[in-house]
Batch of 2 targets.
Target 1
Amino acid sequence: HGHGATGPLSLGPAPRRLKILIGLLVGPLVLATVLGLVVLWPDGDLEISGPGVDVRRGTAEVQDIGPCRQDVDGCRLAQVELLSGPGAPGEAEALLPYGDAAPEVAPGDRIIVSYTEQAPAGEQYAFQDFDRGQPLLVLMIVFAVAVLALSRWRGIGALASLAYSLVLIAVFTLPAIMEGSSPLAVAVVTAASIMLVTLYLSHGFDIRSTVAMLGTLISLVVIGGIGWVFTGAGQFTGLVDEGSQYISGIAAQVDLRGLLLAGLVIGALGVLDDVTVTQAWAVWELADVDPDASPR
């Protein structure tokens, strides 16, 4: 079993019977996860209606700023060069926010503009936010380099795990919830799908990662159960801010209380990943130090 001069068990092969037992436990979970993805996968027929859904967005660069045509105190109008989105490439006028708390926009700033086709001429474009694409891209590159410098080849697996998680949430989780599927079921399938891939990519394909995966899944089920009980007991509605109210307005089929639970489950996954892996490694080492110790 790898004791003695051959080194600790944590660095050697696991007992064959343990591998078989873990395989029998993991196999049905993998199958259930795949079936969950198949059953809950969005069909692409989502239709959203309501205020604001016809608004499209693009990026622009501010060329000049002047007063609005209307005689409104503080109102400002920006001459912008459209870089992407409706009307690009080209030039347009975009309404800027005004008031004491309005952001300061200056010529040369890259901004995100919203476009409403039904609006009067000259008022179709409006400032939405600053375009942070370039600084965030730089930050992402710095982050990736730091991960690779600290973790070397294992860092590549961690970055691949992160990319896989984001893609899965974008193409499966969000569309499935918006189509009216149970947010809690979607969250559990999402968490299991992420876990099955990211634990092995980030921590290596071995028996300890598999044990940690089982611990993570059990913990997620417990968290989902406790969350379900107490969101009901506490009469949580999921209507916590303007965002949730907007969702209920454009997609009434979404269960907001379930959405709250889904966020709880997926949010817990990031914490449980490190906790269960650390616990699995620690218990493995303790068992190697004292092979005769009881499970307790």
Target 2
Amino acid sequence: MANALVSVQILPKTKHGEDIIPYVDRAIGIIMQSGLKYRVGPLETTMEGDLNRCLEIVRQMNEEMIRMGCPNVISQVKIYYNPEGASMEKLTEKYDAR
């Protein structure tokens, strides 16, 4: 059972000021390959799962940006943690019904 929602916005610095969208796409790809439930938003992506697993994915995303040649990365992370269970649908159901 998922116990956390983790939203992440990754902001890689590129060596020569290139567009960061291909880097962000790769970071989202890591989330997609994780097998976790996720939702891509316009400014951040939210994962649903075990807190430790979600944080591991954030680490992988940062390491991949460095591997791709970025000198550094800023990741803005938001965490909702509830040991009794966490789900995107539960938190947004009253808005999704519209």
